[in-house]
Amino acid sequence: MKVSIIFLSYNHELFVAEALRSALQQDYPKYELVVHDDGSTDGTLPIIKEILKNETPGNVEVIFASDGKNHGMVESFNRATAAASGDIIMHISGDDRAFLHRLRRHVEVYQSNLSVMLVLSEVRRIDEHGEDIPYKKFSTHDGLFSYAQNKKNIHAGSYILGASASYRAEVFKKFGKILPGGSHSEDNTYWVRALLLGQIYFIAESLLFYRLHTNNESENPWKWRLGLSEKLKLEHLSFAKKHSQNFSQWSIDIAHAKKNGYVSELDAKIILRTARLNALNWEVLYHSLNVSPWGQWWDSARGLILLGEVKMFIRRLKFRFSATRRDRYWMAYEKWMKTLFND
């Protein structure tokens, strides 16, 4: 079984040395390391080149896939996975640090369960200085997730964190690149693709130091520790809007899976509705909290009625009408974000 690590960086000069060394020092006999820097404008690239030149061990084959341009996260992922030749492809970001047995543990899962298409693990969250951040665990037990168990949740109830994931190459080869120019995140796409092909396996052991800092790509709960602010509200609204745009990619992938027999026609219909409802819920939430013009709100919200989700429609309508209800939402959301930390 050939194994690849894709190492993605962008302006990570403060963290990239330890991240790259953790990618080079995995306790696995032989593997490929695909390095893609997304046109960093700080000192990230010189650090990467120096370490690769002087510290690459004999059991690691390095492929440098960068072209010096900035492509964005999704296209960087597309380019790196296209350059990888492994049967298993693991992701390491330039601001995180992998435990040195992480690759081996993931491969063990794939070897013991051929239906598993994606493996992720618990992580230890750290701050910019490498200090541990107390955080609630997703689960204390390993677990399997599939659409056979849960088609009413677009991720089948799985914890979702792309930084901690690895994939069978089929997840990329059978579906192709993610749509260019979209704001959908790669993890939302690959989670659904993996579930359309098989199962997701969660390892309860922490296998990655996941760094939370002010420049994280995703919405970062650590920023909420100091309390609600207008900036954080805008970030959450941006997250909601981007998440609502996942449906375009999901619908293409579900149709592809049905056409090629990865899922039945009936299952595809159920999963498509789940995907539409997930994206629509985020879309209407965005327009409600943002107090968008009534025309925009209605164009979005009427989709809930068409899906038979009348109760959800009424809840969102109340949000749109009532500033008090919107304030309550923000207070509840802030409280929930803070409960993630075991301070």
Overall description:
The protein is α/β, with parallel strands linked by helices and 343 residues long. It folds into 2 domains: 3-216, Alpha-Beta Complex (Spore Coat Polysaccharide Biosynthesis Protein SpsA, Chain A); 222-339, no CATH class. The protein has 12 helices and 9 strands. Helix 11 (310-321) crosses helix 12 (323-339). The model has no long low-confidence stretch (mean pLDDT 91).
Q: Which labels suit this protein?
A:
343 residues, nine-stranded mixed sheet, 45% helix
Shape verdict:
globular
Strand content: 15-25%
How many distinct beta strands? 9
CATH architecture descriptor name of the largest domain: Alpha-Beta Complex
Count of separate DSSP helical elements: 12
Distance between the termini: 42 Å
Nearest-angstrom radius of gyration? 21 Å
What level of helicity do the residues show?
Answer: 40-55%
Unreliable stretches: none
The largest β sheet comes out as:
9 strands, mixed
Order of helices and strands: EHEHEHEEHEEEHHEHHHHHH
Mean pLDDT: 91
* SS-based class: alpha/beta
CATH topology of the largest domain: Spore Coat Polysaccharide Biosynthesis Protein SpsA, Chain A
Estimate nothing, just give the exact number of structural domains.
Answer: 2
The CATH homology group name of the largest domain: Spore Coat Polysaccharide Biosynthesis Protein SpsA, Chain A
Give the class-level CATH name of the largest domain: Alpha Beta
